[in-house]
Amino acid sequence: MPGPSLHRTCASPLRALTPADELEGSAARKARFWDRIALKYAAAPIADMAGYEFTLRQVEHLLTADQDVLEIGCGTGTTALRLAPFTRRLLATDVSACMIAIAQEKLAAQSVPQLRFAVADAEEPVAGPDAFDVVLAFNLLHLVTDLDRTLQQAVRALRPGGLLISKTACLTELHPLIRHLAVPVMQAIGKAPHVLCFDADALQAAIARQGMDIVSVERHGTRGKDFRVFIVARKPA
Fold it and tell me: What phi and psi, each to the nearest 5 degrees, are found at residue 212?
């Protein structure tokens, strides 16, 4: 569990964004929101554990011990800690320093030599071109400011033949009242982040616009309708 220093640094009252917040850069706004809720996020249980475990198994089958892997939007590092042992090295990044601080505490509690955490915005270059064999993006792509830019940076980081593996909430597939009423109200009071609304077809099209070949499209949910789509795409060799 996060120590007292994290509670002092990361815990702060939720509040609505002010005009001053809107003047900040998008990365700063995203970091501000996720820093505020990092401790609560870390303590929240995974809603569909069976679906999450199935996704992990699918990803494990795609990873090998000679691959360099980048995870963007890693949150508090739970998934990175599980997947890093299947790689040569895994760099896991998030825009929130508080999320990364919690991830670092988890890493300190268990030895995973392949894994490193760093603060970085998924919409900006993390490393040089052709630096990774796999880019992971879980529960992230609907939360970015510019989807095409984020995908462009992910593809840029991939070596020829590399994989983009993503699992994304497709909010257009939710009930309209959730998209048009509940989400805006939560955003207005500072309890929900900026989100993009698209369906699985639109997301596939966005990935294809970056020159990627779609390898597979799956749904892993075990409870009711699954609006989170799992997509694997390959950068042409």
Answer: -85, 150
Range list of H helices, the chain:
4-10, 19-22, 26-43, 49-62, 78-83, 97-109, 147-157, 176-177, 183-188, 200-209
CA atoms within 13 A on the CB side of 96: 30
Instruction: Please report the domains of the chain, with CATH numbers, ordered by start residue.
Output: 4-234 (3.40.50.150)
Report d(CA 31, CA 28) in Å as an integer.
Answer: 5
10-residue mean pLDDT series, the chain (237 residues): 48 44 69 94 95 98 98 98 98 98 97 97 93 98 96 98 97 78 68 86 98 98 94 97
The tokens of 96 are what? 């929130």
pTM of the model: 0.88
Do 70 and 138 touch, CB atoms closer than 8 A? no
d(CA 93, CA 105): 15
